[in-house]
Amino acid sequence: MSRHITPPPMPGYGPPVPPPQSPRKTNTIIIAAAAAVVAAVVSSAITVGVTKSDGVEASPTVTVTEVGTDSDGAAAADESTDPTPEDTGDGVFALDDTVTYESDVEVSLSGFKRSVTGEYAEPEKTAYVRFTVKVKNGGSKTLDSTMLSVNCSYGQDGHTSDSVFDSEHGLGGGPDTKVLAGRSLNVPWGCVLPKNEKLIQIEVSPDMESETAIFTGDVE
Q1: Distance in angstroms (rounded) separating the CA atoms of residues 36 and 15
Q2: CA dist., res. 180 & res. 138, Å (int)
Q3: Which residues neighbour 164 within 8 Å (Cβ) at sequence distance 6 or greater?
Q4: Residue 112 contacts by C-beta under 8 Å, 6 or more apart in sequence?
Q5: How far apart are CA 129 and CA 111, in angstroms?
Q6: pLDDT tens digits for 75-116?
Q7: pTM score, two decimals?
Q8: What's the N-to-C CA distance of the chain in angstroms?
């Protein structure tokens, strides 16, 4: 029985066959791809859990902790950085505040200093606080400052504080001149303030047409 053996094919000269990929690199690619798939699945699960739990989308943390809402659900504005003097709503201001009226007239107090009146003052030999009332006319009309009124009280119980008249120290009451547009007027004033009292209330009205501004605070 004859046996025909087919000889193996001779090596050819075709294009070179690329070497097989390194097993380590292949495994790395497979592992990385698998990790990416797992991460995507976990991320998807987390997203679904956050946004669709109980059918309600979760609110951002900043909305809950930083922004308040009013009764209508609207975002409330943050007024803590407001630089203007804060009015409590009833015309009450701190001693170092500046009050500006709609007419652009400004009123401020400064230079608080304790002293005792002399024997020729009214009232005499009495402890009082001296300060300066500044009226600035930023409007376009002349201000009749002869109608300036200043009234004081002191203590938590609101004791009446008389104004001090002492011509020797320049305390003669209100001004006798008017304030032209763009100009200011500084009026020295004194009010009785016992040595054992700190809290004082000073009510100022620059003219007959302006409401009274109430300044209050402690005097050292």
Answers
A1: 36
A2: 9
A3: 117, 121, 122, 123, 126, 128, 130, 171, 189, 190, 191, 192
A4: 95, 129, 130, 131, 219
A5: 10
A6: 343 443 333 334 445 679 999 999 999 999 999 999 999 999
A7: 0.59
A8: 133
Phi, psi of 41 (to 5 degrees): -65, -45
Three-state SS across the chain? CCCCCCCCCCCCCCCCCCCCCCHHHHHHHHHHHHHHHHHHHHHHHHHHHHHCHHHCCCCCHHHHHHCCECCCCCECCCCCCCCCCCCCCCCEEECCCEEECCCCEEEEEEEEEEEECCCCCECCCCEEEEEEEEEEECCCCCECHHHCEEEEEECCCCEEECECEEHHHCECCCCCCCECCCCEEEEEEEEECCCCCCEEEEEEECCCCCCCEEEEEECC
Give the tokens for residue 188. Answer: 């020295």
Kindly report the number of other CB atoms within 10 A of residue 208's CB atom. Answer: 10
Quote the percentage of the chain above a pLDDT of 90. 53
Residues 175-201 pLDDT 10s: 999 999 999 999 999 999 999 999 999
Q: What is the Cα–Cα distance from 166 to 124, expressed in whole angstroms?
A: 9
What are the phi and psi torsion angles at 214 (to 5°)?
A: -105, 115
